[in-house]
Amino acid sequence: MISRTQRILFWAIVWFSIVILSVPTLIVVGASLTAGNIISFPPEGLSLKWYGEIAMARDLRGAFGRSIIVSLICLAVSVPVGTLAGLALTRFRLRFTNAIQVYLLLPFTIPLIGSGIGMMLVFGSWRILGNVWPVGVALAAINIPFIIWSVSSSAASLDGDLELAAANCGAGRVETFLHVTLPGVMPGVITGGLLMFVLAMTEFLVSLLLTDARTVTLPVQIYNNIRSIITPDLAAVSSVFVVIALFAVWLLDRLVGLEIFLKSK
Amino acid sequence: MDALEAALDMIWPRRLARYSGWAMIAPAILLVGILVLGLVQIAEGSLHTLDRSTFLPSEEYTLANYQTIIDSTTYWRVLWRSLLGAGLTVFFTLLLALPYSYIMVRTSSATIRKSLLVVLFLPFFIGQVVRAYGILIVLGTSGAVNDVLGLFGVEPLRLLFNFPAVVFGLVQYMLPFSVLLLAPALTAIPRETETAASSLGANWLQSFWHVVIPMAKPGLVGAGLVVGTLSLTDFAMPAMLGGGSQDFIANAIYDQFFRTADQGLGAALALLLVALGSVIAGVVIAIFGAGTLGMGGRK
Questions:
Q1: Which residue from A171, A209, B192, B229 could staple onto A116, CB 3.0 to 4.6 Å apart?
Q2: Residues A226-253: tens digit of each pLDDT
Q3: Contacts of A125 in chain B (CB under 8 A)
Q4: What values do phi and psi take at A129, rounded to 5?
Q5: CATH 1.10.3720.10, chain B: domain bounds
Q6: Distance (Å, rounded) from C-alpha A150 to C-alpha A141?
Q7: Domain B72-290 of CATH type 1.10.3720.10
Q8: Among candidates A11, A98, A100 on the partner chain, residue whose Cβ is nearest the Cβ of B103
Q9: Does residue B42 belong to the interface with chain A, where contact is any CB pair within 8 Å?
Q10: Is B270 an interface residue toward A (CB < 8 Å)?
Q11: CA distance B53 to chain A (A)
Q12: What residues of A are in contact with residue B191 (Cβ under 8 Å)?
């Protein structure tokens, strides 16, 4: 029952949104395939030479490796911490639940520049600034609500009687947890872990504040290089992020289905 | 398995079961505690002024940094620019996000819905730096937009490094967030309400204005506040698309720490921004409840 004018107007806005969301990405990928030395449209012939260049560039390879390490550390910290917290919030009747929820949302309510500067000061006074691993811990701290949310929404749909039944049948606490609770919330754990990994790969501001020339991660390296000059090798590095994002969207769709985000609560 | 059970009985005996929930949530509380500790350090730092003779923070406690900020016309201008930028971003983002969510929720084609979702999620996972880089290439003097304009004989325009470029970047950055916050609110509106409105003689504009928008109000307010705080405190878009002349508050804080090296003043600015952000977040939580994200929600 959508009238003609409404349909035309709304679709015009939707197409405009699609263009501004997608065209920059498409052009970055297109620019990375140029055979020339500067970014131009249309590209002067197609070539993969810039991908060869970035694979050879030591600084970019180093930054990419550190980004992977940081994301893995973020994953190693956030998956156990977030899973336990998500289960605690849904499985146990804690006192002050409301206050705890507000507290655990602090990573989203404190502006990132505040969190980043604060952690820079804290890590500085602990004398661990300048290492790569604290960046992973920091990214786990700022994104932890994502995995708590995905685990607790998974746990909320799990019947608590299953755990009681397992215990009743003689399963110990570890056995119940490993064979009943954990498999039950696995979709939430995997979705949360995926979000944590990809968001850590692409995180910029907190990484900028916590890294120096020796520990720089890939998004910060891209930012530093943009400052000087825009070249096709940067477009090629950026395309690596596009590929990661494509894979992440595909995986998220396979795991939970993107439509889940449209459901009303 | 028996060994594991025995080990658990050793370190966490069953009589402690009452506290199991607390034990499980403790790591998360500690992790977020790093951020709280950071705020404490910022607050402490903001109470020391920079000693210009030694370039070290002075020993005594003082509110002089806050006085400097209040007296400074520069920071008022930066604050005004950030607020204006955030306000415009909220307006334009919602203007685009409302029809987008509406079409996505109401379309009968699963393919269209899926495609619209993919278009949203892809930028979300690509990251801000790469997205800003894409905008730099598109809007540059020899970029795609100017190339297209050139076909019509228009001289290359300077589209970057000004205030509108920053707002455009922010709108592009915030669009996926706001659509994902709005869509559940629109899903909750039964299609029949609009049919009823139109059968009573309302045209689509009237039924949209008087039925859909009022019913989607919680979603609109929520999305607006989230987009507003995120753009108010953004660093990357003003830094990359503003070319140094369009600083927002976050950029001013960064400069105090890394360029001027007046950490006390930077800390005072950071704390004021956190306070501003918390007030807005407090309003969101007061209106929608802490369960906004569905954390621990019992359905």
A1: A209
A2: 865 677 888 899 999 999 999 999 999 9
A3: 41
A4: -65, 140
A5: 72-290
A6: 16
A7: yes
A8: A11
A9: yes
A10: yes
A11: 23
A12: 1
